[in-house]
Amino acid sequence: MPLDREPEIDKKERLEVMRHSAAHVMAEAVQSIFPDARFGIGPSIENGFYYDFELPRSLTPDDLPSIEAKMGEIIALNAGFIREEMTKEKARRLLAAQPYKLELIDEIPDETVSLYRQGSFVDLCRGPHVTAAGEIKAFKLLNIAGAYWRGDEHRPMLQRIYGVAFDTEEALSEHLLWLEEIKKRDHRKLGRELEIFIFDDEVGPGLPLWLPNGGIIIEEIEKLAKETELKHGYVRVRTPHLAKEDLFKRSGHLPYYAESMYPPMEIEGVRYYVKPMNCPMHHKIFASKTRSYRDLPLRIAEYGTCYRYEKSGELLGLMRVRSMQMNDSHIYCSETQFGQEFAAVVFLYLEYFKIFDIKEYYMRLSTHHPSGLGKKYVNNSAMWLKTEDMVRRAMDSNNIPYREAVDEAAFYGPKIDVQVKSAIGQEYTLATNQVDFAQAESFDLKFANEKGQEERPLIIHRAPLSTHERLVGFLLEHYGGAFPVWLAPVQVTVIPVADRHLDYARKLEAGLSSEGVRVKVDARSERMSLKIRQAQLDKVPYMLVVGDKEVATATVSVRLRSGEQLPAQSLASFEETVRTVIADKARDLK
Ligand code: TSB
Ligand code: ZN
């Protein structure tokens, strides 16, 4: 059947089989280079495959070409993939030098197991495989990473080689090109190049240091959040970074969330924890005076700094860190107010997404799983079911689409998470909107209703703008570093052509700066082309190149970071443009 007529599903399966077979061929190549290699597992994955090895030395990227070359030789020999069924006993004898395989054999419930042999390599494997190695077409090895055996940090660390494989050379080159694009967009790379943030070994993993450019972006985001929240009836508070153990016992963070908390410190005979969340402190503020229905909904907001002990293997640039500042709020409302309040939060994130031009996301209703009750989740089955239903109703009655995900809830209740993808393809929760039926009880929070009777408030925990860390990490990739003008650390660079144009450049700088525009003069005695290139690399939205003509006519020549040139114009007209673009938080520069 011609390839282009092949049903998608068959093609997908065929590619998976080919990729899995490529993993076996890679293992054969590694075995021929390292005869003592021990083998872990080698599955197919999206676009390719990997295999985990225990080797006598650490691999470097320089090893990949020789492994690839060896694979090429094996494929050229076109050895058949031969399946053999045998008793476990026989398989154990055959794989006696392979402790990881022996462990896998022990776990197979059947009497017999299947092995696949191609050339000099034999592997415990369910299959299926290609009939012969020659069917493996275009492939490339990409990188090496450490991977714990069975993902368990107490087991040995193996070396994993990742590769990609496709039907045709064209499909492979297209994919490699796409990977290059993605690499350029990786927020860790952009963050370094644009001087947004750094990590420092001596400070510690997952503890980012924001550089001045990052500081500007954060200030702008906070300004937006504060203005928006003011408009939506929030009040702002400030709370400490640590509190006594008892507070976190009461809130349920100990024990439900203890694994993600830094260990306690002891002072004056009392144990203190740095806070992983701001909620308990906000609850204390709610409880600090008598509340009545007239105070509700009470929306307490804070850009609170939290610390979480995230596993080192899970840390990733700014996307998953250990110190974070959260766009947090806790909304205390009555049960009748709940639906409207909950939906208002969802509409609030949609308002933000419009500003940031975020279009690719989906909402996920994260629910509990009964097996986690009392361990991962507050043990109150009835309330879980009730609040999950309340969320469904709030979403449905506002026609907001969502998918359900079981066993992803917070320990205190169900939530709507907004899932986005980072440039490197991982899915993250950006905004979150959570119900809490547990903490009002444990903090004995109450208000007097219209009839003067005591009622417990429901609590909504929400973070539409996530944490500064995750949001800026995401935005770096989303914009590929080319921030809209309102967020750009430097909005305008003035580039004098020669030293004699410096005075005029300074005048422009003073004018723009008095308008609140973030402007810099590149006063270095360098070639103009080099200064333009620098501003372009820094992704500065506007460059004003000034030479004799601009000085003589009192105008500016405006160059955009895309390379596009705008017509010469007066400073006043340029100021007007920039002012509007900033005020509109526009992505387009004109
Ligand atoms: C919203 N108590 C609630 C709060 O009131 C809370 O802490 N929720 S959370 O645990 O889901 O965190 C809120 C948001 O912070 C998440 O949706 C996610 O976007 C962001 N976040 C969580 N952990 C990290 C982390 N390790 N690094 C960066 N951002 C994080
Ligand atoms: Zn909270």
Describe the structure in your own words.
With 590 residues, this protein is of the alpha+beta class. It has 3 domains: 11-169, Threonyl-trna Synthetase, Chain A, domain 2 (Threonyl-tRNA Synthetase, Chain A, domain 2, 2-Layer Sandwich); 197-354 and 424-479, Bira Bifunctional Protein, Domain 2 (BirA Bifunctional Protein, domain 2, 2-Layer Sandwich), CATH 3.30.930.10; 492-584, Anticodon-binding domain (Rossmann fold). Helices cover 37% and strands 25% of the residues. The strands form 7 sheets. It has an 8-stranded mixed beta sheet with strand order 11-15-16-23-20-19-17-18, with helices on both faces. Strands 1, 2, 3, 7 and 8 form a 5-stranded antiparallel beta sheet that branches. The site of 5'-O-(N-(L-threonyl)-sulfamoyl)adenosine has 20 residues, from strand 16, strand 20, strand 23 and helix 14. 5'-O-(N-(L-threonyl)-sulfamoyl)adenosine is lined by residues 277, 279, 308, 310, 320-321, 324, 326, 328, 330, 429-430, 432, 461-463, 466-467, 469-470.
- The assigned structural class equals alpha+beta
In angstroms, what separates the terminal alpha carbons?
52 Å
Q: Tell me, what's the shape?
A: globular
* DSSP strand count: 28
- The CATH topology of the largest domain: BirA Bifunctional Protein, domain 2
CATH architecture of the largest domain: 2-Layer Sandwich
Assembly annotation? single chain
Number of domains: 3
Detail the poorly predicted runs: none
State the fourth-level CATH superfamily of the largest domain.
Bira Bifunctional Protein, Domain 2
Mean pLDDT: 94
Bound molecules: 5'-O-(N-(L-threonyl)-sulfamoyl)adenosine, zinc ion
Helix content: 25-40%
